[in-house]
C-alpha cells in the first residue's frame, strides 16, 4: 500500500513489524511449552517402566527390549533438554515481546506526528530510532510475517487458501513434539495393555 506521506509509510512499517514480533513471541512461547510437555511425557514413560516391573504387571515385551526403550527414553529427554536449553525459547520470547512493546511505543510517537508537519531531520531521527530497535533485537521469522499478513486485513488481502497454507506452515513446526508424545503414549499403552 503506497502512502502519500513518508511518515504514514514509516508508521505502517513499524506497526507491521511490531505485529510480527508479537506473533513471534506467541510462537516461541508455544515452542517452550511443547518442549516441556514432551519432556514431561517422556519422564512419565521412564517412571512407568520401573513401576510396571516392580508391581509384577504382565508386559508384552522382553526385559531386554524394555531396558532398551528405557535407555532410549532417557536419551530423548537428554537431547530435548539440551535443545531446549540451547534454543532458549522462553528468554527469546520475552526479548522479542519487549521489542514489540518498544516498537508500539515508537508507532504511537510516529502516529502523533502524522498530522503535523515533520521536518526532514525529525523524520530521519524516527527512521534511525526504528533501525536501532531492529538491530537491538532478534528478528521474527517468515511465518510470523505471514500471520501478520493474515491478521492485518487493512493492509493485505489474504485468500482462504493462503490462510490455510499459513496455518499449515505455522503448525508443522510443532509436529515433532506431537509425534514424540504420541510415540511414548503408544509405547506405554502397548507395554501395559493386557492381551
Automatic annotation (TrEMBL):
<dbReference type="Pfam" id="PF18160">
    <property type="entry name" value="SLATT_5"/>
</dbReference>
<feature type="transmembrane region" description="Helical">
    <location>
        <begin position="34"/>
        <end position="53"/>
    </location>
</feature>
<feature type="domain" description="SMODS and SLOG-associating 2TM effector">
    <location>
        <begin position="4"/>
        <end position="185"/>
    </location>
</feature>
<keyword id="KW-0472">Membrane</keyword>
<keyword id="KW-1133">Transmembrane helix</keyword>
<protein>
    <recommendedName>
        <fullName>SMODS and SLOG-associating 2TM effector domain-containing protein</fullName>
    </recommendedName>
</protein>
<feature type="transmembrane region" description="Helical">
    <location>
        <begin position="168"/>
        <end position="192"/>
    </location>
</feature>
<feature type="transmembrane region" description="Helical">
    <location>
        <begin position="65"/>
        <end position="86"/>
    </location>
</feature>
<keyword id="KW-0812">Transmembrane</keyword>
<dbReference type="InterPro" id="IPR041115">
    <property type="entry name" value="SLATT_5"/>
</dbReference>
